[in-house]
Design a protein that fits this description.
By secondary structure, this protein is an all-alpha fold. The protein is 77% helix and 0% strand. The chain has one domain: Ferritin, core subunit, four-helix bundle (Ferritin).
Length: 186
C-alpha cells in the first residue's frame, strides 16, 4: 500500500476518536489542507536557509541576517502546523518525500545565489503561500467551521505578509537607490 494511503488510513482511524465539535470528515479534510501548508512551510524554510548559506554579492550581511530571522520564524510555524494536525487526531507527515509530494512550492538546489535572485524567489514563494492561506482560511471557515485552524492560518497569513513586505521593501530600496544614483546600478 502506498505511504500516502497508509497515512490517510491512520488519520481516519485516529480522527474518529476526537470529539471537539467537528465531524470526522472535517477533521481529516482540514488536516489534508494543513498538510499542504506544512509542506510549503518546509520547502520555504529550507529555501530560506539555503539562501542564507549560499548568498553571494552585495548586501550579504543584511540579507544573511534577514534570512536567518525569517527561517527561524518559519521553523516555529512548522511546529505549530504539525501540532494542529495532531490536535485534529491525524498523523503529521514527517519525511521530506512526503513534504515534497504535498508542497506547491518548488525547492532549489544549493548553489550560490545573488541578492536580487534570492529576494525575487523568496518574495514569489511568500506571495504564493499567502494566496494558498487565504483560500484555505475561507474554505476552513465556510465548509468546516473550524475557528481554531482558521485562527492559526490567519496568524500565519499575517506572518507571511510581513515577511513578503520586508523582502519587497529590500527590493524597492535597491531599485529606488539605483534610480537616484545611476552609478549604483553599474
Amino acid at each position: 500500500m502506498a505511504w500516502h494511503l497508509q497515512l490517510r488510513m491512520a488519520m481516519t482511524t485516529t480522527a474518529e476518536t476526537i470529539d471537539i465539535g467537528l465531524k470526522t470528515d472535517a477533521l481529516t479534510e482540514v488536516s489534508d489542507i494543513l498538510q499542504q501548508v506544512l509542506a510549503d512551510a518546509h520547502v520555504l524554510y529550507l529555501k530560506t536557509r539555503n539562501y542564507h548559506w549560499n548568498l553571494a554579492g552585495g548586501r550579504f550581511h543584511s540579507l544573511h541576517a534577514l534570512y536567518e530571522e525569517q527561517y527561524k520564524a518559519i521553523e516555529i510555524s512548522i511546529d505549530e502546523i504539525a501540532e494542529r494536525i495532531r490536535m485534529l487526531g491525524c498523523a503529521s507527515p514527517g519525511s521530506m518525500s512526503e513534504m515534497l509530494s504535498f508542497a506547491s512550492l518548488k525547492e532549489r538546489k544549493g548553489q550560490l545565489i545573488t541578492p536580487d535572485d534570492s529576494l525575487a524567489s523568496l518574495l514569489s514563494d511568500h506571495e504564493t503561500v499567502i494566496q494558498i492561506l487565504r483560500a484555505a482560511i475561507a474554505s476552513i471557515e465556510d465548509s468546516y467551521q473550524d475557528a481554531g485552524t482558521a485562527d492559526l492560518l490567519t496568524g500565519l497569513l499575517q506572518d507571511h505578509e510581513k515577511m513578503a513586505w520586508m523582502l519587497r521593501s529590500m527590493t524597492a530600496l535597491e531599485t529606488n537607490d539605483s534610480q537616484q544614483d545611476p552609478s549604483r546600478s553599474q
